Give the backbone structure.
Amino acid sequence: MRLYEFDENSATVSKIVALTNQLEQDLEDGEIPTEYSMDDLINYFREYDVILDAQDLYNMIKQPPLNALIQNIQGDKVVFKGQSTTATPPEDENQKVVSRMAKNAMK
């Protein structure tokens, strides 16, 4: 096979697959924070010469290989598989809210 026979699109797909595996490994090793933004993910791919935009990522998380790693993108936050999609406030915060609601109801 000659070098000119390589398809540029399949080379990009191969890069994306390799970067997804690397991203997963970095996540497992704790090199990537669990609070990861869309811009962080775009920059991660850009570091390895894969230029994507937000719409590309929205489309890509619905298909392999990214759908095995990314559960959802909520606003600007990337939710990886195994992460909670809703942030629950600490118990003390819940008690404060209930207390405020009770005071408002008494008025």
Notes: The longest strand covers residues 70-74. Helices lie at 8-28, 38-47, 54-60, 91-106. The chain has four helices and three strands. The beta strands are 36-37, 70-74, 77-80.
